Amino acid sequence: MQPVAPLQQARPFAPPSQGPLAQPGGPMAVKPPQAFAPPGGVQAPGTAAPPAPAQPAAAASQRQPPGRALALNGNTTLTPRGARGGFAANQQNPDGSRTVMVNRTTPTGAPLVSGFRQTEDRRNATVSRLYSQGYRVTQAPDYSARRIGAGASFFNYTNGLRAATFANGQPFYREKYGTQRLGGAPVRIIERTVYADYFRGAPYFYRAPVVRTYYEEPVYGIPVYVWRPRLFERVFYSIFWRPLAVPVVIAPACVYCPGRVVSFASPVESYADPIDLMGDLQISSAFAEGAVPVPADAPEMASLRGELGEVQQQVQQGLADNTVRSQLAAQGADPDAIKAAAVNTSQAIDAMTPVQVPEEVRQEIRQQVRLAIAQHENGHMPTVADIANSGYMRIYLFQASAPLTVRDADTGDECLLNSGDLIRLAAPPNGTGVARTVVVTSRVGSCVPKQQVEVPLPDLQDMLNGFYLRVEDNMKRVQACTRRPDCLRT
After folding, report:
1. Of 440 and 340, which is predicted with more confidence?
2. At what angle do helices 457-482 and 359-378 cross, to 10 degrees?
3. Contact 249, 269 (CB under 8 A)
4. Which pLDDT score is estimated for 237?
5. Positive or negative: CA dihedral 467, 355, 132, 337
6. Are strands 355-357 and 262-264 parallel, antiparallel or unpaired?
7. How far apart are CA 470 and CA 481, in angstroms?
């Protein structure tokens, strides 16, 4: 294994130079650029409100309607959102960018403020948002991309393919379409060429690229791609069905023990059951991949904090105007609650703060890992439909395997699901292509627990694929470790 070259200053978003191949028989599908709509219906000062992005009918009908935007001055508008101090403030900047601050009440009743700067590049038809939590989202005619701090960039192309590159331009993985014959019939596939992986949160390169195959299957009328692993010899799986010959003792020198990126409600001193070890590795290794530091003193983050401070000041000054207060009250909003909420600030993604994992979440993941090993041994990989149609739909946990921006099911606001974050289905998918889910456990800076978010079915299947891939990787590592007694003891 070769370590990844030191990561340099993150480059601006650009698709990989040798990006995913076009669909067979035609060029890469290109859609018109979709500009980000201001949250809650906020319009830029002095402009007409842009049309809202298309949403599935079932989801859009459940959204909370925003209030009417009020002009605080020539550059800033304020839109009330609900009666508990929720608001969205939008400031037009001299350089043409916009700074937006959004306040909402979390499902636990706590106020949550986030903000972003939105910049449009009309020449390249791209829209970019830098969020106060430290991640960036870029929308282009043929792809969308996410990046946390100076971490890897993850691309979703409009033709259904994905790619990822590290900050120094080295490839993480790329995809292309193909076909295979199964049972005498051609089946469409995606081949993902993977150049690197993570271990204890740090990337490393394979000696040779690994190609993984994903097979197309319809799920609620939507084509998704399901990973199919290669079967191992039966003896490979046998160690996971009996106690470890030598317990794994938790110690600083133990490279296979769960890392410090998570804090379990019930810490352990050693592992005798391999499923317990595998389950905790499943949680910690995923959160470790998402633990990308976001330097507070980075120039662009410092600049954004300054802009959000200006927006806060504009809101506070505007709420001193009796005309503004009466207009807010006429819409059912509480001016004093908005004023109190406007002093809060959002928390950036913190790679050093351990993610708190409740014991019931830990036990559920251990059960899912046990099931995944059995299914791997039998060559059966599930789809989202298998989970949704089962008796454990409402307790099964989907684990984000890469950064993904999703929308709040009630407000339409964007938030981030980072690697390791856990969600579950709130209801069976209804044919819109989007599943309503509930956040169960997440790190600081991600969508918050109990928040309901909408996840497209292809992305939900990608989480399921990633969960089973992580189980396979951890099986290989634990299997290799059992062959070295010193590995288990240390």
Report:
1. 440
2. 80
3. yes
4. 92
5. positive
6. parallel
7. 16
Cross-strand bridge partners of residue 145? 138, 155
Residue 127: pLDDT above 90? yes
Measured at the alpha carbon of residue 356, what is the angle toward residues 355 and 360, in degrees to the nearest 5? 130
β-bridge mates for residue 114, sequence order: 102
| Residue 308 identity | L
* Predicted confidence band of residue 30 (pLDDT cuts 50, 70, 90): very low
CA atoms within 13 A on the CB side of 342: 27
**Residue whose C-alpha is closest to residue 67's, from 50, 85, 93:** 85
- The backbone torsions φ and ψ at residue 80, rounded to the nearest 5 degrees and listed phi first, read -70, 150
- DSSP E strands in 228-315: the ranges are 248-249, 262-264, 270-271
Strand partners, 210: 194
Using CA atoms, how far apart are residues 354 and 127, in angstroms rounded to an integer?
33
Amino acid present at 455: V
Residue with tokens 């292509």: 433
Q: What is the residue-averaged pLDDT of the chain?
A: 83
Supply the pTM of this predicted model: 0.84
SS3 105: strand
**What is the chain's length?**
490
Q: What is the 3-state secondary structure (H, E, C) of 402-471?
A: CCEEEEECCCCCEEEECCCCEEEECCCCCCCCEEEEEEEECCCCCCCCCCEEEEEHHHHHHHHHHHHHHH
Mean pLDDT of 234-255: 86
Q: What angle do CA 158, 161, 166 make, to 5 degrees?
A: 105
Which of 83-92, 116-125, 146-155, 347-356 is predicted least confidently?
Answer: 347-356
Q: Per DSSP, which regions of 358-411 are E strands? A: 398-399, 404-408
Show Cβ contacts of residue 305 under 8 Å, excluding neighbours closer than 6 positions: 132
For residue range 193-242, what is the model confidence (pLDDT) as tens digits? 999 998 877 889 999 999 999 999 999 999 999 998 888 888 899 999 99
User: Cα(267)–Cα(284) distance, rounded to whole angstroms?
Assistant: 13
User: With b meaning 16 or more CB within 10 Å and e meaning fewer, what string describes 187-220?
Assistant: ebbbebebbbbbeebebebeeeeeebbbbebebb
Q: What angle do CA 13, 23, 468 make, to 5 degrees?
A: 75
Q: What is the pLDDT of residue 77?
A: 94
DSSP-assigned letter for residue 265: S
CA nearest neighbour of 300 among 130, 153, 114? 130
Residue 124 to residue 187: CA distance in whole angstroms: 36
